[in-house]
Amino acid sequence: MSGLPDPEQAAVSNRTFGCVRLVRNKTLAERHAAFFQRGPRTRDHPLPPTSRSWR
Hints:
mainly alpha
């Protein structure tokens, strides 16, 4: 027992964190684009329909 994950646990963790990074990066990209198109008040506007296609 070394405290390290076995290969199967490592694969699950890598897959999970990869998905989390993907969603976070896509969300940040949309917020960044919205900021420069509409200004800093991005929460007052609904997300564009394209953002729903990858959810």
